[in-house]
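Note to self: keep these together.
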Amino acid sequence: VQLQAFGGGLVQAGGSLRLSCKATGIDFKRYTMNWHCQAPGQQRELVASITSDHSRNYDDSVKGRFAISRDNVRRTVFLQLDSLTPEDTAVYFCNTRAFDREFWGQGTLVTVSS
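Structure:
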């Protein structure tokens, strides 16, 4: 199983980014996909999840600003980040649990300048 995340970068406060994470090695459509973030010096935290039937959950800190979606044909999960603030600066990781273990992408850095 491999997860490859893309799309991070430097953006000004109030700006937007779209993160992508492509999965291989699993029957993608069957699995819940997650995005986590880890800010400098902080623990990794769950940001958003999307289930196989497209049910979505968000951390309260990103509700109304971030949107998770998936394309099962492309085996890709997306995270749209809008109205970004410097507090959103973090490495963002995609993740899934399959075959009774956790799999993680390599992380993509989002830096929001004030």
